[in-house]
Amino acid sequence: MLPHAIYESLPYLYLGFASLASAASEFNGFVLACAAVMTAASAMIIRMRRSYRRELRLAGGTRHIHG
């Protein structure tokens, strides 16, 4: 299992890599498609984490969640 700090920053790393890869490849179509998939996956992960934390908070927080 990954350390908590790395695990929490992965979606943001995906976003950064997607934008850098697009520009570095001179906007190659395949790389842009991969970057779009990575961006969508990152956004979905971030949204799911926020929703999960909100539900835990509303339920009284059965365990400690960082962030």
Total helical elements? 2
- Return the string of H and E elements: HH
The biggest sheet amounts to: none
Q: Radius of gyration in whole Å, from Cα?
A: 15 Å
Head-to-tail CA distance between termini: 18 Å
Strand content: under 5%
| Percentage of residues assigned to helices | over 70%
Low-confidence stretches: none
Classify the secondary structure makeup into a structural class. mainly alpha
Tell me the count of domains.
Answer: 1
Mean pLDDT equals 80
Tell me the number of strands: 0
Shape call: elongated
Task: Provide an overview of this structure.
By secondary structure, the chain is an all-alpha fold. The protein has one domain. The protein is built from 2 helices and no strands.
Helices and strands, with pairings:
Layout: H1 4-24, H2 29-58
Helix pairs in contact: 1-2
In short:
This protein has 67 residues and is mainly alpha-helical. The protein contains 2 helices and no strands.
